[in-house]
Design goal:
Length: 288
């Protein structure tokens, strides 16, 4: 990929520990090139506990902003001058804009999921959602769904972790266990099922032992998986085989990146053009 640098080029990056495996530079530079934006997107390792020092360095070095992955998403929250509602609700940021010496924190994970859902023609408002998992992705998605007016049941093996997430918005979020009987019962009334666990992810041995809860869904229920490698998990395969609409995590990955770049530049982007550019770059790098 050709990246052109000028004296006016604004710097962006992703920080994390580890972070050199990140696909964000491929995705963001592809979108930047597609729209002719005067930015460059880099990868910057920042050790755990050093996010505060990085903030000062980034501002001094003239960065327009950066994305943050583990383990910095929660560490950065109290250091922000302003937080968007979803970031404030879930207590994690992944997008930081630096303007006039101030730090503006956003969480685009949940918004990215909502946009991907919108690509399927699905609005979460008033819908009953069964969300599996209680990690960082689940927390961001739960916060975004509750902000959008969905009623969400968060199911997790450790119910206490699910309950902790639900404290964000007890009116819209309810905790539950992960036993198969529980999942089957909850599925009967769910309009949307979302997997935010690592079950089925490439490179792991973890799998759903029983997928009968998918069969308990209504025929029109939408099944989503935050996993994008492999492109079709066993969960999504079961949904497809039973005729239910299904979506993997690639849309969420791309849309959260597009949202981040919109925050950095202050300009809306053509999402279809941006997704096409990012997917082409990922394929060229053998990343998908």
């Amino acid at each position: 990929m050709k990246v052109e640098l000028k004296n006016t080029t604004k710097k962006l990056c992703v920080i994390g520990d580890p972070v050199l495996h990140s696909k964000s530079p491929i995705i963001q530079n592809a979108i930047i090139n597609a729209f002719g934006l005067d930015y460059i997107y880099l990868c910057q390792p920042v050790p755990k506990g050093e996010a505060g020092r990085w903030l000062e360095c980034a501002a001094y070095a003239g960065y327009a902003g950066f994305n943050a992955t583990m383990p910095h998403k929660e560490e950065l929250v109290p250091l922000m001058d302003w937080l968007d509602p979803v970031a404030e609700k879930c207590g994690a940021v992944n997008t930081i804009c630096i303007k006039d010496g101030k730090y503006y924190g956003y969480n685009t994970d949940g918004g990215g999921f909502l946009r991907a859902l919108g690509d399927m023609g699905v609005s979460p408002a008033g819908k009953r959602v069964l969300l599996l998992g209680a990690g960082g992705a689940a927390k961001a998605v739960a916060a975004a769904l509750s902000e959008a007016g969905a009623m969400v049941t968060v199911a997790n093996r450790t119910v206490e972790k699910a309950a902790a997430i639900c404290q964000m918005d007890p009116e819209h979020l309810t905790p539950a266990g992960f036993e198969i009987d529980t999942l089957c019962k909850l599925s009967e009334n769910a309009h949307i099922l979302i997997n935010c666990t690592s079950l089925g992810m490439a490179g792991t041995e973890s799998r759903f032992a029983d997928l009968s809860f998918v069969d308990a869904l209504s025929p029109t229920a939408v099944v989503c998986d935050a996993i994008y490698a492999p492109p079709e998990t066993a969960l999504l395969r079961r949904a497809r085989e039973t005729g239910r609409p299904a979506m993997n995590g690639m849309g969420m990955l791309l849309h959260q990146a597009i949202l981040a770049l919109e925050h950095f530049t202050g300009e809306p982007l053509d999402a279809e053009k941006a997704k096409a550019a990012a997917l082409a770059a990922l394929k060229a790098e053998g990343a998908v």
